[in-house]
Design goal:
Lipocalin; two-stranded antiparallel ribbon; 11 helices; 14-stranded antiparallel β-barrel; 2 domains; alpha+beta; Serine Threonine Protein Phosphatase 5, Tetratricopeptide repeat; 463 residues
Length: 463
Amino acid sequence: MHSGIRVFWTAIILVLSAQTAAGQTDRAALQAQAEAALVGGAPARTAALANQLLQDNPDSFAALFLLALAQSDLEQPRQAAVAARQAYRVAQTESTRLQAARLAATSHFRARQFARSELWFRRAANHITTEEEAESIVRGFDRARTANPLTTQYTASIAPSDNINNGSDASRLCFESLDGSCFIELDLREDQLSLSGLEYNGSASFQYRLGRDSRQLTNVGILFFGQGVVFSQETEDLLAGSESETVRDLEASDFSAFLTEISVDQRQTRLSPLGPTRIAFKSGKYWRAGDLLVNYQDMIFGQQIPIEPNTSWAFEGSVRKQQAVAPGLLDSTIYNASAALSTSLQNRDVATFTLASKYNVSDEESTFREYRIRLDYSYGQSFAQTRWSTFTELGYRSFDEFSSTLDGRRDLFLNTGVTGVFEEISYFGFSPSISIFGTRTDSDVSFIDSSKVSLRFGVASNF
């Protein structure tokens, strides 16, 4: 460790332990000798003196911190991490906890224990009080995350909603005649209507880096996603009063879903002169109410084209082969294409404008085309100590054939939302978030009309 860094850490110890050392002459003398040895480049002597201090007082923060620094200088990062963790547990102030957690994080990093390093940088984030400290912790965390071949990500949220099943706003199904009027009308079942309740979901993804160099980055990954609902009392009463026994027997678990997915993802920097290229393969399974519905495989190709340092285009195309497993479902092939322009503004706001299309090929009545335009906007500056982002998406979907009409089906849909992350409240680098989402579909087939508003509570990482 450089002498300048030794002086810095020793100065911290002197300040933090001044009150503790007062009136304890022998202990203060030993501590002063240990500090002088550390500054003078004799970490072995510092370690010996720190251990002597710990014999008398095992919970001495100054002694544990000195021991961790000495072991770091002696190229013993694992032992240094242990001593720093012990110093953290006995620390009495936010400042001492921050210093101990940061030392534990850097020691784990030097020991190539990158996951533990990330955890301790997140723990250090609980005790930051200045922008400079925050920037230092973020830099350390990013360095550990970049070095770690394993990347994990978790999400969780809960959302009250007025349409947990994406049901219809209409109450009747109309079969059209030649003049466009209804020649047959049927009442929709209660479970096909908009049902209110509580939605909850969570996901866990793991990516492992197989290789990285100046030309390519290759990851393999696995994703788990699950969601469920809780009926409102109004929904329970509606279903219980149905004339259909099938509807009366419905439970909240019948609306649950689960997905698993494995992936191989490679990014090439020299495959194209335009910019970084992405090639990926995914394979997944989707369950509904505990029953496996479909298997699918995705092939994805993407091309990024930098224009300026803060502006770039991203083009992506994919093909999904989807095999039906459950009776009554159909195989399909889905083609997706998108083009997105992203730019960072001078005020640190980030805007992304996306054009996308989908072509779902199945039987005559299930084949459709879809087009979407979307704007995402993330605000660089916090408002009321909250980080905000918004999105708005407008789309059009068309079917050439549909079961209840003579001329197909056409839908217009709008999705919009706003998310706030409360950065003032932080634990392990995570902050609570709140999102308001709204969606509406207007179709020339009335029972397809639907709307939904949900208020979602979750957590978001600050770095």
